[in-house]
Structures are given as structure tokens and as C-alpha cells.
Amino acid sequence: MKLKALIFDLDGTFAETERDGHRVAFNRAFGEARVGWHWDVALYGQLLAVTGGKERIRYYLEHYQQDFCPPVALDEFIAKLHQAKTRYYIELLKEQGIPLRPGVLRLLHAAREQGLRLAIATTTTPENVTALVSTGIGRHALDWFDCIAAGDIVKAKKPAPDIYDYCLEQLQLEAGQCLAFEDSANGVRAAVDAGIRVVVTVNDYTRDEDFAGAELVLNHLGEPGQPCQVLSGKLDGFECVKVDLLRRLSGEDEE
Ligand code: XBP
Ligand code: MG
Predict the structure, then answer these.
(1) For the chain, N or C: smaller number of CB within 10 Å?
(2) Looking at residue 255, what is its pLDDT?
(3) Catalytic residues
(4) 19/42 Cα distance (integer angstroms)
(5) 209 CA to middle of ligand 2, Å?
(6) Which of the two residues, 33 and 253, has the higher pLDDT score?
(7) Using an 8 Å Cβ cutoff, are 170 and 152 in contact?
(8) For position 120, what pLDDT does the model report?
(9) Residues 45-89: tens digit of each pLDDT
(10) Residue 21 to residue 179: CA distance in whole angstroms
(11) What value does the mean pLDDT of the chain take?
(12) Which residues surround ligand 2, an ion (CB under 5 A)?
């Protein structure tokens, strides 16, 4: 089957948004709400097992703050706290930005030049996608993506395959015509369970996770002069991830 589209996860894959972006924004929202909680770098690493900010707060309350009594109904409390977190996250992106990871912009340009379609499949809130793409590349780049699947648009977040299933439906493509890019085991599971082959670029939070089912696991996508390192799989002599390599990984030449 011919490769037609690349589907990118955002957090951790496009940019290292978790530690210095989302985590900081959660803590600012906690400060504003005067709840006295603080998610340090190590604790946040554990909480990342739960995808989605609202889901992560709920999990934290259930496991670390059992005695907490919300001033209003719990769902409403979490929703408000999360709205504040989104506001702080977007503010942070606008004020200081978070750079794209090596090779991301290069690969987006190359894919477009070679006629591949682009999409985003993420658990994060839609406004965060707009903010990261606008500040990291430019507002015009939002038009590069034929589908931006984000947040609560599906009921079950990653590791459920729903966000990828939704994306395939929107693109009107089959799983075998697409390749996904992820940074976490939860993301890999979601893509693999949707039948999509995956390339992983690890980060400090996800390096030791189990990426069973991924085609290739790398430290990053690489740039000319900044080759990527292979953690598992084969780069076939490429120094960085190029469209020709992706065509091979997608099994374009297979009978
Ligand atoms: C990313 C997430 C997100 C962000 C927070 O997972 O889990 O929840 O941490 O975003 P993935 P929101 O990269 O696998 O999509 O607070 O907007 O939910
Ligand atoms: Mg991710």
C-alpha cells in the first residue's frame, strides 16, 4: 500500500512540552486555586501514565489527595482548574515558546514537498495545538494539517486507538496508508491498535518505556549534521528520518 499521510502526536513528539510546559501550567493553576499542590519533575513523570490533563488531575486526587474536599462538584472543580491550566499553558507558549524537536520541521516540509498529507492526533486540548503550531512554526502552518484530532473529540484518550480511528476516518485513508509518530508507550499502543505503523522519538520521560510494536525507536528525527541514534529497528543507512525511509517502513514495496 502506498504511503499517503503522516500523523503526528504533539506533546513530547513535536516538542518537549511536558516538563517545562504542561507541568508548569498545572502548578500555576494549582497556585491560583490555592490548593497547595505541587507536581515536581519526578512526580509528573509518574502522572504522565494517565493521558489527558483533566484525567490526570482526577487520578492525582484519587491517589495522592484522598482527603481533599472540592468546594463545588468534583467534575466542575476539575474542569475549572483545567481551564486555568490551559490559559497558563498558552500564556507560557506565547511568552517563551517551546522549540520543536530536531527534524520535525524538516520532515514536515519534506513530506509536503513529496505530496504526503499531514495530520495531528493528540490527547491535548485543541487550543494548545493551535498555540504550539502557531508559536513553534507560524499560524500559516495550521493549514498544513488535513486533520487536527485533539482532546475530548473522542471519548477514550490514548492508549485507546479512538483518536487515530477518528483521524483515519477524517482523512478517508486506511491505516496501512499512514505512519504515526509518537514519543510514549501510550501513544504507540493507540496507533498500533488502530493498525498504524509507528516511529518513536523518545524523551527523558519515556526513554525506558515498552515500545513493543513500533517499527523504529530513535532519540529524535535527526537533522543534517545531527544524526539520530537508533534505540531499536533499522535506519537502513539514513542519517536522519527522510521520506524515502518512511516509505520503506510503511511497507510500500511489500507484496
Ligand atoms: C499528552 C497528554 C496531555 C498533556 C496535557 O499525551 O497527556 O494530556 O499532558 O494536555 P499524548 P491537556 O502526547 O500521548 O497525546 O491538559 O490539554 O489535556
Ligand atoms: Mg506524546
Answers:
(1) C
(2) 54
(3) 9, 11
(4) 10
(5) 12
(6) 33
(7) no
(8) 98
(9) 999 999 999 999 999 999 999 999 999 999 999 999 999 999 999
(10) 27
(11) 96
(12) 9, 11-12, 183-184, 187
